[in-house]
Structure to design on (479 residues):
């Protein structure tokens, strides 16, 4: 239990808390936490766990630092642009606390590697940005008997809970199935207030530390709902689902599945779009728009805020949500090309119009982002 | 009899950006029907074709999941609060959208 003089000073504000003390600080030093994602949620989470003296931290992230991250991912700096997030995260955390051990995994968490990686840690903190990885983290944690500290954000709202299947519900008890792709916009599409992950990730850090200390009342069986726009913090009760497809099984019965398929994302959806002739490339769009004899109608289904940043000349703005009541603005006899930021919302709009009987409607693959990259670099990217 | 319904951010497009709406209903199912009348399209986002609450959405009456009460038949007392909580995935990285 011995701490050096320097450590005693470093952790003095913890050591004087009766709920922590030397014993609690020793627990933190002997503990290990895996953080999945070194972005918005992972940033404050890892910073506080490192500062608190959690002895061993693992970081899983396959991504590189991008300009659009710096608005909220406070682990990373301008000098880290283009470099792996796990590298800048490790460097930053080591600069705060050189006494702790940090292991990085510059990879996606997959069903092949999840059990190996997670089994080496006491607790998992979920700071991912997609449903497939969230279900994977949950199922692997239930199988391995690990506690999953859950946090999620969207625009101005956040959710926090602690899933410990041995004592309470798991993520699947709360959401047995994921929403269909496109039903819930991503942060990239819907936006997120930069400070929101700071709040939610910090709450995850607090829950992690409480669980490690065995103190207080962790959010087991409770879901915390945060709305920073309304300054509203609320709680709802969560119960273990007696029909839960995962936490009602024994560990050996739990099998990790193809989560991309489960969530309907990835190649499946793309190839479906291509197979059915639902998509058109930006190169073809460019050719079609140049042919003056062609009757082409280009529709932009993004939001007005996005339209204000950049647009393709001649496109008519009809946000996806307004499409059903603005159909009269679309000439069903012309060739209809629909675009959004990167091709997801426009594919939904295309399917919607096809169902209504519009025969000549296609979605612009890759959206205005592909247009900026391949056709007109004068169109700003965001 | 009035019930406060809390609308989550992803569904506020359908309620003219209102975060809270007042309705008057005797059961949760009735409340959802009434929401649909006032805000067309809202019920479809919450319930599937068979009329059940979608698997990625939870409806809480005064902080209790209606799945563990009497589902859509759960009676609503005066002054109750109904919360609609959808799954959100946002977090760290930004994947291909």
């Amino acid at each position: 239990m011995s701490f050096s003089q320097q450590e005693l000073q470093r952790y003095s504000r913890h050591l004087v808390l009766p709920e922590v003390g030397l014993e609690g600080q020793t627990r933190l030093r002997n503990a290990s936490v895996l953080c999945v994602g070194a972005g918005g949620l992972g940033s404050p989470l890892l910073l506080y766990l490192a500062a608190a003296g959690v002895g061993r931290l693992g970081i899983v992230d396959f991504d590189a630092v991008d300009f659009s991250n710096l608005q909220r991912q406070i682990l990373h700096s301008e000098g880290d642009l283009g470099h792996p997030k796990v590298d800048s995260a490790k460097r930053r955390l080591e600069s705060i606390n050189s006494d702790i051990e940090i292991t990085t995994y510059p990879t996606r968490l997959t069903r092949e590697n999840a059990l190996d990686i997670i089994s080496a840690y006491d607790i998992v903190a979920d700071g991912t940005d997609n449903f497939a990885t969230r279900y994977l983290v949950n199922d692997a944690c239930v199988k391995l008997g690990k506690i999953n500290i859950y946090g999620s954000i969207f625009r101005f709202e956040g959710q926090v809970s602690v899933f410990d299947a041995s004592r309470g519900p798991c993520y699947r008890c709360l959401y047995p199935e994921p929403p269909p792709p496109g039903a819930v916009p991503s942060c990239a599409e819907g936006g997120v207030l930069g400070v929101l992950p700071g709040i939610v990730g910090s709450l995850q850090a607090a829950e992690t530390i409480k669980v490690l200390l065995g103190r207080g009342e962790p959010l087991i069986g409770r879901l915390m709902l945060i709305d920073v726009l309304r300054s509203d913090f609320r709680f709802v009760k969560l119960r273990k689902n007696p029909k839960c497809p995962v936490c009602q099984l024994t560990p050996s019965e739990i099998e990790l599945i193809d989560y991309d398929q489960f969530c309907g994302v990835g190649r499946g959806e793309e190839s479906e779009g291509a197979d059915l002739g639902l998509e058109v490339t930006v190169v073809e769009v460019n050719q079609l728009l140049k042919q003056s004899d062609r009757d082409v109608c280009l529709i932009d289904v993004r939001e007005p805020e996005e339209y204000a940043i950049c647009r393709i000349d001649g496109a008519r703005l009809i946000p996806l949500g307004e499409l059903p009541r603005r159909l009269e603005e679309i000439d069903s006899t012309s060739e209809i090309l629909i675009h959004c930021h990167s091709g997801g919302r426009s594919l939904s709009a295309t399917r919607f119009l096809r169902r209504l009987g519009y025969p000549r409607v296609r979605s612009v693959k890759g959206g205005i982002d592909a247009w900026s990259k391949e056709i007109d670099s004068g169109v700003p990217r965001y | 009899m009035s019930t406060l319904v809390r609308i989550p951010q992803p569904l506020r497009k359908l309620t003219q950006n209102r975060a809270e709406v007042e309705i008057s209903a005797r059961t949760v199912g009735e409340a959802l029907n009434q929401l649909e009348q006032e805000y067309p399209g809202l019920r479809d986002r919450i319930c599937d074709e068979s009329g059940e609450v979608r698997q990625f959405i939870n409806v809480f009456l005064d902080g209790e999941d209606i799945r563990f009460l009497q589902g859509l038949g759960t009676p609503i007392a005066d002054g109750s609060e109904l919360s609609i909580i959808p799954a959100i995935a946002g977090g760290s990285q930004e994947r291909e959208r």
Notes: Residues 3-86 of chain B form a domain with the Ubiquitin-like (UB roll) fold (CATH 3.10.20.30). The first strand of chain B starts at residue 3 and ends at 6.
